[in-house]
């Protein structure tokens, strides 16, 4: 009777790790002959061959193949597969190892599957990342698998999010005859397994997930391709060709062609973007290969993804390497400044070009850190705003010896700064010097990853809103919401943070998980909300006049959030119809999300209607809060800030189910709203006309999300960060 499971172990140059791997291949609950081990000595230059022979002499399940020439990892796997007789086969890498009991757990699943009329073609297992210092990280994609249809068995088409998880071969136990029938083979060189794993998943009639860590994957070891600079990273393109050759001949998988194409482009760009992988002299060629991949394999009728990722893909498809580099370097959505027209302030030298920029920055890094210099930025260098602005103002009062300077993207943005606020323009010599020498860095997003963190510097991340929607690492299993996100890069930038400012206990709880790191959370409240907590009636009147609300009008602020699934500003309210129902005693202030250029569009209303004003470009959102008698939003974090004022809030959420599915949320807004909650425009209008229909809901909401808003948040932050003078 053939074995139930064949474990194929390719071995080359891993003498240090091999004993641990071999010792982990125990199966105490296996019946005699149920498991076979096939070790392939791929012409290993060290003592691996002798270690394998010694182990095989003591383990009757194991036999060793000594190859006459080195075939690479893919070739060694193929050699082992040719000798395998098991119903299922598992390719285990010999520098990794299995947790105790893993083979027994897998066998239990396989026994049950072979008794089925339609057994699983592939069994996927959970796994753990293990780092050189002994640190362990659970499978970061587990939530894509656990609780999904894969637990009971499904096809890839029934759970396409599977392709956002790891696509390596080592956590996949496959039915041997199914694998052989696919007529695919492991590639040569780097990324050799994806030419097998993609077809393996795409064509399977039944995929199954075992929610148990059955594999320890060793991260960060010397020689690992994820940390090695090599021309061989371009081997990926041959594997992509093999994947699409399979798609061309097997129509079972054709429905997922676009998803596969997006996934391969994302991988190629990730390799290109990761510092140190593609050698500098080969980067133009590698980028050209990505452009060629678009030309060769882009599906018919292909539509670019929305958001930043779509812009990246367009630039890659066109071969626009320089524009792509500027987008990555700037860390912001393009479009605010047209390429080639970046302005500079009078008396400021021109922007430094890419190569000279890094030379200059590295030269400035040789200077001592300036203990009394703080760099501030907000919203991708758009100007003076949000928590950084409130911290800057309070620092001038409490720590005046610390000189603050703002980073802005061009002279137009610099012109919006309050009088007397010092600034530097991105990529000018003054900017490079400030970024290289400052002691303190305060931002509500991240500074460019190309700027390193020097020893002794202090990075303060304020973020810019209380999260209803999932954030950071919580988006791993939300592919549309995570559009364009690089989770490895996210871990890298979070590693720079020394402090993370939190507005409330809810945020502290969720950000600690969404942004894993060693920073300190400052449970202070949001500095930007101090103005709201301390606002006087006179200041509110001034704000109304500043934004154009006439005396005697009741003002509504309508502020919908960004929706990844819709790709741009799309008001779900019929604003002219709302204005007509409200009548002439009302003013509706319309504020689009800052991701969207162009404002709110045509706001023409019928005679006798409420006044519609587009305030998307108003530089200070707190002015709008003070001016408005009521806020209408959907899922925007603005509701948490506005609640500080203790004024009515209405939630208009006609697409709540879709939003939850795409973005993921931290609590049920329908069950715990800040006020009236509606899914129909008529109901929203009635709630607005009613005045304040849900004061008790607002009270509960404020207790939960505004406990620290006493007007002293900026003072608490500054006192923790800067040397405050007594």
Automatic annotation (TrEMBL):
Membrane topology, from the record: Peripheral membrane protein
Keywords: Cell membrane, Membrane, Teichoic acid biosynthesis, Transferase
GO biological-process terms attached to the record: teichoic acid biosynthetic process
Gene3D superfamilies: 3.40.50.11820, 3.40.50.12580, Spore Coat Polysaccharide Biosynthesis Protein SpsA, Chain A
Subcellular localization, as worded in the UniProt entry: Cell membrane
InterPro entries: Glycerophosphate_synth (IPR007554), Glyco_trans_2-like (IPR001173), Nucleotide-diphossugar_trans (IPR029044), TagF_C (IPR043148), TagF_N (IPR043149), Teichoic_Acid_Biosynth (IPR051612)
Any one Pfam family match given in the protein's UniProt record, by short name: Glycos_transf_2
Record flagged with keyword Oxidoreductase: no
Domain Glycosyltransferase 2-like: residue ranges: 6-113
Example of a GO MF term: CDP-glycerol glycerophosphotransferase activity
Cellular component aspect of the GO annotation: plasma membrane
Name assigned to this protein: CDP-glycerol glycerophosphotransferase
């Amino acid at each position: 009777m053939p074995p139930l499971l064949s474990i194929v172990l390719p071995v080359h140059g891993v003498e240090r790790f091999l004993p641990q791997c071999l010792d982990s291949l125990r199966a105490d609950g296996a019946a005699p002959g149920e498991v076979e081990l096939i070790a392939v000595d791929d012409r290993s230059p060290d003592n691996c061959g002798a270690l394998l022979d010694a182990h095989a002499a003591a383990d009757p399940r194991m036999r060793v193949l000594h190859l006459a020439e080195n075939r690479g990892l893919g070739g060694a796997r193929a050699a082992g597969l040719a000798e395998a007789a098991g119903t299922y086969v598992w390719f285990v890498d010999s520098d990794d190892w299995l947790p105790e009991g893993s083979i027994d757990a897998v066998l239990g699943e396989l026994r049950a599957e072979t008794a089925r009329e339609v057994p699983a073609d592939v069994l996927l297992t959970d796994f753990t990342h293990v780092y050189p210092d002994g640190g362990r990280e659970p499978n970061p994609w587990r939530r894509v698998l656990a609780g999904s249809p894969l637990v009971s068995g499904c096809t890839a088409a029934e759970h396409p999010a599977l392709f956002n998880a790891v696509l390596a071969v080592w956590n996949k136990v496959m039915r041997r005859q199914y694998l052989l029938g696919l007529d695919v083979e492991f590639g040569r060189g780097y990324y050799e397994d994806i030419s097998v794993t993609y077809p393996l998943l795409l064509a399977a009639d039944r995929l199954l997930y075992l929610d148990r860590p059955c594999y320890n994957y060793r991260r960060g070891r010397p020689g690992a391709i994820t940390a090695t600079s090599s021309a061989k990273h371009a081997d990926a393109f041959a594997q992509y060709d093999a994947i699409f050759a399979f798609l061309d001949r097997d129509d079972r998988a054709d429905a997922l062609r676009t998803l596969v194409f997006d996934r391969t482009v994302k991988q190629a760009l990730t390799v290109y973007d990761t510092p140190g992988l593609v050698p500098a002299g080969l980067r133009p060629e590698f980028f050209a290969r990505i452009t060629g991949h678009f030309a060769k394999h882009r599906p018919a009728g292909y539509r670019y993804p929305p958001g930043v990722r779509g812009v990246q893909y367009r630039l890659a498809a066109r071969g626009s390497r320089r524009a792509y580099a500027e987008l990555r370097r700037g860390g912001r959505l393009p479009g605010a400044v047209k390429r080639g027209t970046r302005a500079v302030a009078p008396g400021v030298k021109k922007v430094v070009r890419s190569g000279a920029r890094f030379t200059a920055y590295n030269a400035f890094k040789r200077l001592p850190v300036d203990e009394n210099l703080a760099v501030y930025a907000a919203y991708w260098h758009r100007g003076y705003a949000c928590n950084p602005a409130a911290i800057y103002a309070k620092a001038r009062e409490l720590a005046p010896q610390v000189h603050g300077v703002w980073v802005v993207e061009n002279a137009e943005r610099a012109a919006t700064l309050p009088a007397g606020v010092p600034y530097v323009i991105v990529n000018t010599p003054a900017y490079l010097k400030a970024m290289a020498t400052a002691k303190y860095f305060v931002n509500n997003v991240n500074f460019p990853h190309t700027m390193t963190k020097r020893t002794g510097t202090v990075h303060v991340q304020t973020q810019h809103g209380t999260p209803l929607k999932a954030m950071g690492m919580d988006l791993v299993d939300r592919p549309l919401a995570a559009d364009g996100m690089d989770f490895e890069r996210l871990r890298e930038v979070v590693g720079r943070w020394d402090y993370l400012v939190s507005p409330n206990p809810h945020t502290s709880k969720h950000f600690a998980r969404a942004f894993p790191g060693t920073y300190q959370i400052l449970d202070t409240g949001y500095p930007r909300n101090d103005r709201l907590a301390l606002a006087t009636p006179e200041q509110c009147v001034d704000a109304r006049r500043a934004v154009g609300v006439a005396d005697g009008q009741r003002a509504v602020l309508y502020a919908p959030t960004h929706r990844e699934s819709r790709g741009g500003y799309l008001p779900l309210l019929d604003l002219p119809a709302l204005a007509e129902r409200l009548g002439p005693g009302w003013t509706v202030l319309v504020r689009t999300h800052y991701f969207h250029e162009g404002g709110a569009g045509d706001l023409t209303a019928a005679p006798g209607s409420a006044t519609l004003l587009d305030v998307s470009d108003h530089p200070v959102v707190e002015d709008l809060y003070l001016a408005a008698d009521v806020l209408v939003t959907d899922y925007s974090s603005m509701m948490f800030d506005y609640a500080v004022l203790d004024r009515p809030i209405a939630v208009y959420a006609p697409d709540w189910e879709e939003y939850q599915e795409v973005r993921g949320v931290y609590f049920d807004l329908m069950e715990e709203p800040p006020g009236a909650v509606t899914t129909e425009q008529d109901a929203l209008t009635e709630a607005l006309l009613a005045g304040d229909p849900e004061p008790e809901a607002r009270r509960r909401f404020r207790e939960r999300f505004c406990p620290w808003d006493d007007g002293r948040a900026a003072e608490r932050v500054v006192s923790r960060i800067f040397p405050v003078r007594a």
